[in-house]
Amino acid sequence: xxxxxxxxxxxxxxxxxxxxxxxxxxxxxxxxxIWRDTNGEHINAHGGGMLFHKGRYYWFGEHxxxxxxxxxxxxxxxxxxxKDLNTWKNEGPSLSVDAEGSGSEIEKGSVIERPxxxxxEKTRKFVMWFHLELKGQGYSAARTGVAVxxxxxxxxxxxxxxxxxxxxxxxxxxxxxxxxxxxxxxxxPDWEQKVAAGAFLQRDFKQGQMSRDMTxxxxxxxxxxxxxxxxxxxxxxxxxxxxxYLSFTDEYVRVFPGGRNEAPxxxxxxxxxxxITSGLTGWAPNPARSAVxxxxxxxxxxxxNPVRGTEEELSTTFLSQSTYVLPVQGQKDAFIFMAxxxxxxxxIDGRYIWLPVFFEDGKPVLRWLEEWTLSDxxxxxxxxxxxxx
Length: 389
Ligand code: GAL
Prior knowledge:
Elements: H1 2-25, E1 46-53, E2 56-62, E3 76-82, E4 89-96, E5 111-120, E6 125-133, E7 143-149, E8 157-162, H2 175-179, H3 191-196, H4 199-203, E9 214-218, E10 224-230, E11 235-241, E12 248-255, E13 262-269, E14 272-278, E15 289-293, E16 301-304, E17 307-308, H5 311-316, E18 321-327, E19 335-341, E20 351-356, E21 358-360, E22 363-367
């Protein structure tokens, strides 16, 4: 008996060591710090999104350049790959800008933001959508562009850009939207209310709806959704893409009219859809928001600011703006909040804020961690967690 007891003790000790060691060797995420790729260069994939394909993660993002002009698309969309989410290999530009003066919609000097890539099981193509602003037109074009590739890393071939849903009313449009025009002028004291009520939905009905900050979400049944800030960034539009993911169906809805949501990120847990967004203050950070629904196309309910921490953390989302929520493969209910700490005066120096998404009382919750590993994503019981309130 004594012998068995001793062996069990030894075994437990060995196991403890193995666990301790594997924790030690787990790579650390250090939000906000310079994050070097395998060439030793700071990762250049801002406003990014992620695709997991055949055992590797692919991180797509805006390639930024040094100096004030560096937010323009001067190179294209970066792609990095990794097995462990921490060590990243630069796979080169996946979508390259066209030559200056070529007249192409994605010519050098246009604006290409928040690229997201999804894989189409049926066509076996990789489909990239992104926010596109045409060269020399500031942010007035408000279009969404699409490119396609046979290989995950590219090269992606640019297909077209659109103002979605020209001539189509959203599913949740009212009779009044369709029949009672709302006129709004620039200095209208009721500008916000009128826009929330659908003034720009009506204005853009014929030419197609505006599409700026965007993301994509593919549901378990293969349906792909395009989620974008529309109506002068006042209202989110969620639209279903066609089966090949290369264009829009006529099905779309307005979500949080007048809510001023930007930087949408969507994920699914236990059959519910969750959304994390930012408010509307350009490159400057602001308080994040979160929402939940049982259905992508209706019933979104606000869950408030997901950040828990100091006043400053709450009001600036750790000085960052959401871009994507990544479901970690092989770990149940493990999600990473990905955000950008923009540096508008020197965009290439922008930093990445990656933090675990915890769930408390059915709400997604974000807390600052100086450094953390994937094992920190495991749900912890209340009272046991170093992160619990
Ligand atoms: C932010 C947006 C960024 C970028 C920026 C330009 O609100 O989230 O993606 O468009 O404005 O000022």
